[in-house]
Amino acid sequence: MRSMTYLLSIKNLKVSYSNIEVLKGINLDVKKGEKVVIIGPSGSGKSTLLKAIDGLVKINEGEIIFDGVKVNNENIIKVRSEIGFVFQNYTLFPHFTLLKNVMFPLQEVKKLSKEKSEKIANEALESVGLLEKAQSYPFEVSGGQRQRAAIARALALNPKLLLLDEPTSALDPEFVGEVLEILEEIAKKGITMIVVTHEVDFAEDVATNVVFIDGGEIIEMGPPSEVLVSPRSERLKKFLSRIIRKRLVYSK
Ligand SMILES: Nc1ncnc2c1ncn2[C@@H]1O[C@H](COP(=O)(O)OP(=O)(O)OP(=O)(O)O)[C@@H](O)[C@H]1O
Ligand SMILES: [Mg+2]
After folding, report:
1. Which of 107, 127, 158 is the last residue of a domain?
2. Are residues 173 and 76 in the same domain?
3. How much distance in Å is there from the Cα of 133 to the middle of ligand 2?
4. Which of 20, 37, 38, 48 gets mutated to test ligand 1 (max ligand atoms within 8 A of its CB)?
5. One domain for residues 182 and 167
6. Which pTM does this prediction carry?
7. How do residues 178-236 score in pLDDT, each as one tens digit?
8. How far is CA 69 from CA 10, 57, 100, 153, 195, in A?
């Protein structure tokens, strides 16, 4: 079966919000271990695509096959437990320590014991360099550290697929580097990742494939050396010159 060779296979995916179609037939295959970077203008449907993969929005048409199984209402909870999702605005519980934040889904979703959860959570925090902050509350740490804790929380579940929606865009510029470094380390360990980000250097270093979405459609897709270096469409050329110009302004 062809789809078995992919961890994720999206076929003709269409999603609408109150009759406005925002994904207009997305086809995307992701093999195990691949790192896909999604770029595209604001409102083009990037977050909606990640949400659809995680079963958080209703699909109008098309299908998603995850790990060889067509996702449906019956198996979505199981599928979701195998996908880690890091949202754009870190969503830690403010009244829990970082340790408790990472433990929570292990206890509630994976139904692991407190002891087991604590052990795994500590390891996950260590892997993002936050062991010494385990007992701190989110308001007591930096934005970069909060986002690293959110990444630890997703990783602790040992997901087959890790989705990250603009993991650095809400951060002050001085914290962007540390989060990208952690993501690069995680990527090297072999996990399959789909990352929405406009960090071009990260995409060049880490991505196996770059996907450019505009107006709810995939306009171009391929290795970073093609998509980022020699874009074919006018839309992508314009988009890239815009984000690269922005980067130059920031680094001044
Ligand atoms: N819950 C919702 N209800 C109605 N419309 C929505 C909803 N979420 C998103 N939209 C609309 O769907 C379109 C795609 O939104 P989406 O959040 O996927 O874009 P995006 O590419 O992630 O943008 P950004 O770069 O700004 O995060 C936009 O026009 C947006 O306004
Ligand atoms: Mg978005």
Report:
1. 158
2. yes
3. 29
4. 48
5. yes
6. 0.93
7. 999 999 999 999 999 999 999 999 999 999 999 999 999 999 999 999 999 999 999 99
8. 12, 18, 33, 25, 22
